[in-house]
Amino acid sequence: MSAKLLNGRQLAKQLQTELNQRFSELSDGTVALPTLAALQVGGDAAAKGYLRSIRRACQGVGAALRPVEMKEDSSQREVEEALEALNNDESVHGIMVLEPLPDHIDDSLLIDFLDPAKDVDGVHPQNAGRLASQRQPYFVPATPAGGILLLEEAGVDFKGKSAVVIGRSDIVGKPMALLLLHRHCTVTIAHSRTVDLPAVARSADILCVAVGRPEMVTGEWIKPGAVVVDFGTTYTEEGLKGDCEGASVEAVAGMLTPVPGGTGPITNVMLMQNLFDAHRRLVISK
User: What is the overall mean pLDDT for the chain?
Assistant: First the structure.
């Protein structure tokens, strides 16, 4: 058996075309152009790389990007004041805080400073709480939102299925578990301290992996015919690797999001969807 590979690039292209049309309808000058502010503290290469990918995503749909670059030695208060200014700026509709941040900056305090209505990353406690309780409106972090959409487009049946999420981050693991729970899966959240992790993984009809350890999950961890969502993106000397060992997992699974080409391409498109929704709530529905 060989798994069906879920094509994230194809779905991302389709969604980008649809969003481009929606954004273009806003460019007649009657309303403000949807604008995303990206706050970066210091010159970390990974944050700069992410900023470049966000810029391409904005260009792809016709949104505006406003980079806000601050010095490495900026104080906590200075960064909070910059964030507060973006909260109060009516021409900004979405805000992201790029990571990693310098060690002296408390990211949890910055998240608390975010205006939940502009939190297109879905990290503010209010958005996380509304997601948990299914109380609209809220923003879902782009990566798990894209993973769920890929499964829905592939016709995956969620009801009553056993789902295991390996990884418990606030940006991928926890929200993915909630999205599966809301679709009537029986959900287990596993992590590095889970006893006999391979056995727990083998119990899953739907296995989602978001741990950042390249090729950790092999075919021996997979229940035959299972749906496997690989959120891993680790750059190695051999190129981009997922958290799953592609060949062995593909030989056992029923469906698999490949790396590259699976959840990655759709993530920034979902971020643009969140920006569109933020703009609609703040400007169109005002």
Answer: 95
